[in-house]
Design goal:
This protein has about 230 residues and is of the alpha+beta class. It is about 20% helix and about 25% strand. The protein has five helices and ten strands, in the order E-E-E-E-H-E-E-E-E-H-H-H-E-H-E. A seven-stranded antiparallel β-sheet has the order 2-3-4-8-7-6-5.
Amino acid sequence: MNPITSMDLTGFTEREPGVWTDERGLVLSVHYFGLVPDLPAPLDRPDLLRHGLALSAARAGGGLIEAVLGEVDSVPAVRQLIKIRRPNGHGQIFIGSWTVPKAGCSAVVKVQAAEGRMTGLREAVVADRVGPDRYFTPHPYAPGVEGGLPHHVADHEEWDAQFPDHPLTLVRTALARITPTLALQDGFKSQPPFGAPAHAHAPAPAPAPAPAPGEPAAPRRWFRRGRSA
């Protein structure tokens, strides 16, 4: 099944089937998983879902910035923003995604961007403005979570306008623009809804960040553009 039939790709250039980039360093990718979604709780239990997602991100060495329930083309979905360390240890990668889960499959749209040579500027400026006592805060979804990247106020959306070129701002903005243009195949939309936690079924592998341009990938070309790039 090819669930995503169209979306607005304005500003993006296709690098390989299913992967696009833009001149600011954003990587956009689409995925289909024909397995039970690996989510820790159903969407109608948002507190449990967010708690589980925060724990999962921390165990993987990253950090969940936010998880918001919403809809993609009128289908219930969960939007996540996470941060992970770059493989070379210098800076972070920010990933925004929509997961549209069904009982036995899911569709995922991801936008990601990495920090460049200059890292930590946003964090340093915000820490100086709010003070060290207010900078680091307990995770709102899992206050006792340990490990991974720390939760802090510099990742909040309220700072995006002051750092328009920061990768987190770019990811958040691009995902917000693309979301209303996403269209799902009717056959996918009519699939039974996702309900039970993934551990009650055969787990699906968590999607990895999209490959950088030039790295191998072989998803099929299976949807049309919303508007021309």
